[in-house]
Description:
mainly beta; six-stranded mixed β-sheet; 10 strands
Amino acid sequence: VQLQASGGGLVQAGGSLRLSCGVSGPITSRYAMGWYRQAPGKDREFVAATSRSDGTSYYADSVQGRFSVSKDNAKNTVYMQMNRLKPEDTAIYYCVVNPYGLATLRLQRGGDVFGQGTLVTVSS
């Protein structure tokens, strides 16, 4: 399984960006798809994820209400719409899939497959 993320860039605080991540390779409906991020000097953290089967989604508290994760199963693509961006959202964003499902991905219990990151910079 390989992942290719795109959509990062520079945006002013309050602005919006949409990240996309195409997944190539065999994945099943049990997979979860989502995003982590890593800010400078910090550990990588969970941001948002969705179940490929029923679209159930989870969000980190820090992005709840501002970010929205979605998927297109036909295109094997996961998206994340990021609104009302803040300078503290500045990070490298990594798309991720997990064959064991949403809970495993969200709780970092193993099996994550990460793509290359895409840089999001939010200026104040």
